[in-house]
Amino acid sequence: MGAVITNVAAVFLIMGVGFFANKAGMLPEEANKYLSPLLIQITTPCMVLANIASKEVEEGMWGDVITSLVCYLAYFAVFSFIGWLLLAKVMKIKGNEDCGVYMMLFASINNGFIGLPITLAIFGEEKLFFMIFFQMALMLYLYGPGILQINYGDGMSSKGMAHILKTALGPGTMAAIIGIIILALGIKLPEVLFKCLDTIGSATTPLSMIVIGIQLGSSNFRGIVRNKRLMAESLIKMLATPVITFLLVNWLPIPDVIKLVAVFGAAFPSAVATTPIAAMEGKNAQLAAEGVALTTLLSLATIPATAYLVSMLYL
Question: What residues contact residue 79 under an 8 Å CB cut-off, 6+ apart?
């Protein structure tokens, strides 16, 4: 489990770069006004396309591929609904009290930076292949229904809805859709184009962490601990979602590898993209950054425990 500790520790080290750069005045909070669109509209779509373009689907595997994509899309639908019930109905958080940010923190998972490398290190190439489809489902969620979710309670004026639809059909969603087409048709990208996408996409991980670090630079860490809503939401997410996911998928007539990836992915912390999306949408990006940091810390316990359990169940 050394890979788990190493990768999670790396998250905080890269966050620290942004944090101390903010404290030193090199990267003020206003820098995220420019870094967030760069992350969302350029580097992340390139990362998705490069990841997908590097894979091939063997003959006879398409049934499992389609099943996995449907299953992982259903994951975000289910936990978006559960998050709404928990946060809006049980905890009584109103839309103007950052309910949408809490919802995205609850439903999203960080299977980009943490999920992909840890899955490869612990379970190997076969499970990594299916985790990539979980990543594709995440992209479709974040830049589609997720935009509606983070704007929860705003009241959808015609202008506001037009903006949400434009964002939902932005580069992140289109990258996932184009990637599926590339995979389905077996298209091979020219080497120079693939290199370009891969190089730009490789900036996504450090840039995401730095954006969060900058945001945390102006955060009140005592406030994170004292924020009872954030603490409760984070604990429920990190402890309950793997259990709920197991109860939902274990009985399904689908391959064990799809079940393993679904349950293991549920143990991941909130997606780092929550912070730049919140900033771009004019929401509480500081709360988003604090939620990502807190769930990442909690994942030090949930990821190793879940990895052990799914290994016992599905390998």
Answer: 106, 107, 241
pLDDT digits (tens, 9 = 90+) for 219-229: 777 777 788 99
Cβ neighbours of residue 96 closer than 8 Å, sequence gap 6 or more: 153
Q: Structural domain boundaries of the chain?
A: 2-314
Per residue in 297-313, pLDDT tens? 888 889 989 998 998 99
Alpha-carbon gap, residue 299 to 55, rounded angstroms: 28
> Looking at domain 2-314, which CATH architecture does it have?
Up-down Bundle (1.20)
The number of residues making up the chain comes to 315
Q: Report the chain's mean pLDDT, rounded to a whole number.
A: 86
- Residue 110 structure tokens: 């960080």
274, 105 in Cβ contact below 8 A? yes
How many angstroms separate the Cα of 257 from the Cα of each of 18, 181, 313?
Answer: 37, 23, 11
* Exposure string for 207-244, b = 16+ CB within 10 A, e = fewer: bbbbbbbbbbbebeeeebeebeebeebbebbbeebbee
What tokens does 295 get? Answer: 């769930």
Distance, in Å, from the CA atom of 27 to the CA atom of 36, rounded to the nearest integer, reads 13
Is the model's pTM score more than 0.70?
yes
**pLDDT at residue 158, rounded to an integer:** 45
